Amino acid sequence: MLHSLKAIQSYKSGHLKEAEQPLWLQLLTAAEQPNINLERIHSIAELEGTNPVLDYVERTLHVLEQLPVSFWVREILEDVLIWSETAKAGSLKQRRIWQKQGVNLFVHNVGSAQLYNMYGRVGNLHGNQVKHDEIDEINSSQSESLSDFPSEQSSSIFVSRQTAHTAYGSLTPRQEIIGTLIATHGLIGQYIRGEIPFAENAPLYSFITHGWLTAGELQAILMALNECIIAGVDPALWNQVQAEVQRIVGWIITEPNHTDWNVKERLSRLRSSSIRQGEALDEAYTKLQAELEVDKALGPLAHRTLWYVESAMHDFSLQEMVKIFLFTLNSEAMTQAVDDSMAEITGRVTAEADQNSTSQEQHLDVVRHISFELLMNTMYYDYKGVKKLNIYKKRMIEKYLEQYSWEQIEAGETIIYPHLTHRIERHPDLQDTVFVTFEFSPAAEKLIAFCIEAEKSPLYEKAVLLLFDLFGLRRDAYDRFHNEETYLADMNSSGDYKKVLLDYMVGKRVLDIGPGGGILLDLIEQERPEMEPIGIDISANVIEALERKKQREAHRWQVLKGDALQLDQYVQPGTVDTVIFSSILHELYSYIEHDGRRFNSDTVVAALRSSFNVLSPGGRILIRDGIMTEPEAQKRRIRFLEPDGMLWLERYVQDFQGRSIEFERISENEAVLGINDAMEFLYTYTWGEEAYVHEIQEQFGIFTPSAYKDCIREALGDEAEILTFRHFLQEGYSEALGERIIFMEEHGQPAPLPDSTCLIVIEKKKGMADR
User: What's the pTM value of the predicted model, to 2 decimals?
Assistant: First the structure.
């Protein structure tokens, strides 16, 4: 077994005393908080009480132990692997000291190489343990030697070698190889992902030019090292990228000046996870090029490394990512870096004045690293043990980015946005790195935290509306921030119920208002190939999810972000043959304020008129939605078979937003209430706790049959003919409630559940002028 694995196992079993730990292990085990990439983490909560950095190092060593490599290669790689993650470790006190010394803890391969050269020759994996007071002494002695280097040197991956030369004198070739492998570890994978320029791997070629390694030996070392690094994350990932790693290793050995990816290729690699989720990159890039000279605008990124960029921004669109890049490149932090470097050049001694202009340009490129780690950390939170995107912050950032034109960003203009701004800055001790994030006001942070906390309570809706108002958003635009994935899945599970609508569609062009997860669009495409289905939704996250689904599954249907009350802004009047409202009219009724009031029948009138306006003569409106029972004065008794049933009813009556509901409690588990109030409650009771916070905001049954007909006549007049009007109890309710309640007439006689759902077909009469 590898010496390092024995040490880790002894530490984990409690048999290795702190004083006996090798120095690298002391540093790794001293980590007080995880400093890791969240991309492959499924739960933030699971990190508590663990040391993911040490666990990852252990996995890489297990991979190394199984590789068929020579003894000397194994020994070198063991040293590389045990030190390569040390910049992510250390106690908070140690990390503060390291930062003051100029150790780049945010570009962890560089920082780990610096730490190797500070400590690696003092305490190695075979012994020579170092006590904490000796570590402090090393810290103190290194402070001056690290800070003495000019800023442009500290930005290079050679900083580790230069630091070591200053502190200890010349390194042996073996130490040079180990330090450089640490400084470049993981860069091949990052190059594959588009995060670094190829030149960052250039120091590896020096092993050959110095005569330390043959080309074959360097290839064997790099392939083995990258297998350890990548398979330590996921063995399947190594199988996926092994061939490309081998190709890039070949370039490092035979083409050290290999040409970098072009801008489009680099962006496509940075957005690989977005593309896998369905982003149409070619289409998005073409659209972007029509607005911006992309190659020119992003040219300054070519020689810079990008850290945590995909983890932070894969949920943003390509356009939004590019705007964030341009915020960075045109920021004061970048321009100040150039000014500082110019001032340093101007004050150099005469000998430096003889350097050529190319060298001076390199001095000006003082910022080599752009880190999105802070943005990554702010974009996620833990929900039920699962890492979840902070959709609240994402939507606010999207709104913020919308305000800026390309010209404003390139000019460095700032738009005052009271509760949100972008922040790009350098740390005084790390002049070669800028850090990018978005900063919310204290009020916004607290309100977003309140929204997250309120996700399971009736306060949620109020919290979200406050957030809309704070950022000036339309209240109906993002009505399902919370648990959107579950909502879309639920919508897709209703395919059998929606399939009946296919029998009533006419013509060629079909609009599906509020398409949810796209199940009806899929059905139309599959069952009615002659039709052109189009989904329209006001919710940005629904449209994004559908666009990804379309690209991923190669659908031909279209989606548009639009307002159901103003359809003529998106499609030409008289050009649509069928408009479908499938379980969406009750949501418009419940969420959209009309004349300052939700739960307003005028909203339904406006939606019907909007859809009728875009219909061609002979075209149809199809409605499948909730319905109320008449006569409305009827009473029903509910007997709860579950102990908490009455508590559910009491809670619901207090929280329901649609209308005032009253009930008479006649026993511990029985209550009498109006027939429509009873059914409205049972819809929510059926869906359960997970859906409660949304269901209390929605009124499913909005009209009785008579009232529905009156509404249609009021909205559409004589030009409309109701071809079909039927109502029924949707399958599933009786089964879902059968073991939870007994439903009775007012005086205790068993009664069936009333109808829940209506199907209405309205036709625009031919030969009459369009409204």
Answer: 0.72
